[in-house]
Amino acid sequence: MFRVVYEWKVPVAQQQAFQTIWRTTTETIHSTVEGAFGSFMLRSSDDPEKILTVAKWHSREHWQQFWGNCNPHQMQKMRAIAERISVETYDELEDRSK
């Protein structure tokens, strides 16, 4: 498995809208893009504008096909109300969170 961590700066006043768009975006990607297994969202306890979204993919290759030009159309509504700060990729070694 492969994980991608996106860091976002989301104004507090926009967080409900961002979460709604993220939920729809995640469900759409999961149901329409091969190799996408969904995502979860975290908010920093120390910085309320810092949001992480962590996507799970079958492989780096599946994510790279989706990621393409670094601005997939599925994520554009999220970028309209929040600033994407960074994208980091990780190879999953083990998941004991079940």
Helix-strand blueprint:
Elements: E1 2-9, H1 15-32, E2 36-43, E3 50-57, H2 60-67, H3 76-81, E4 83-91
Antiparallel strand pairs: 1-3, 1-4, 2-3
Would you mind describing this structure in some detail?
By secondary structure, the protein is α+β, with helices and mostly antiparallel strands. Helices cover 33% and strands 34% of the residues. The protein has 3 helices and 4 strands, in the order βαββααβ. The protein has a 4-stranded antiparallel sheet with strand order 2-3-1-4. The chain is globular and about 35 Å long. The two termini are 15 Å apart. 15% of the residues are buried.
Provide keyphrases for this structure.
98 residues, alpha+beta, single chain, 3 helices, 33% helix, four-stranded antiparallel sheet, globular
Give a brief description.
The protein has 98 residues and is α+β, with helices and mostly antiparallel strands. The chain contains three helices and four strands. Helices cover 33% and strands 34% of the residues.
